[in-house]
Amino acid sequence: MTDALDDLLDAARARLTDAPRERIGELQEGRRLLGFPRAPRIVPTTTAWHLGVLLLTEDALLATGDIVRSRAEVRRGFAAESQRRRAELAAAAARGGVPEGAVVHIGWHPVDADALDERSTPVALRGGAVVVRWSAAGGLMPLDRYLDERIDLLQHPPERA
User: Fold this and answer.
1) How confident is the model over 13-63, as pLDDT tens digits?
2) CA distance readout (Å), 124 to 5, 38, 152
3) How far is CA 75 from CA 72, 87, 151, in A?
């Protein structure tokens, strides 16, 4: 099964050579410098093609986590703690060197082809076929069809998207 999955992902990579990529990063908690805590930052590590719930790199398949748009830190009030956290992550991306307005993915995790079973997510094995759960409440779709749709969307985005 892994050979078939590898072949499918290699074919997808070949189709995506000219498609835009997005940054993949890691959140680094601030360390202390001369006893003072430094602010956390998101450090870009590589790039990937963003295909819905999946990120495809040159050598791996990843499940998406959080998507953050880099933004300079600004003091403002927030109605919700979740808004405050999103603003902190956006500022951490800016501190990590991500250009303002650019997207960076954090909290992603690798999809282990050898560990796929009926309960793995977002990619699973069902009846001997590799499928993907495209949303938390969504159904399962064969991975090859899912990749075809997502690659087409990436190469031909809808107007004003």
Assistant:
1) 999 999 999 999 999 887 777 777 778 899 999 999 999 999 999 999 999
2) 11, 40, 22
3) 10, 10, 39
pLDDT at 84: 83
Q: How many CB atoms lie within 10 A of CB 123?
A: 22
Q: What single-letter DSSP state applies at residue 99? A: P
Tokens of 18: 């000219």
Round to whole Å and give the CA distance between 63 and 54. 5
DSSP 105-151: EES-EE--GGG--TT-SSEEEETTEEEEE-SSS--EEEHHHHHHHHH
118 vs 24: which has the higher pLDDT: 24
- Pick from 110, 104, 109, 108: nearest CA to 43: 104
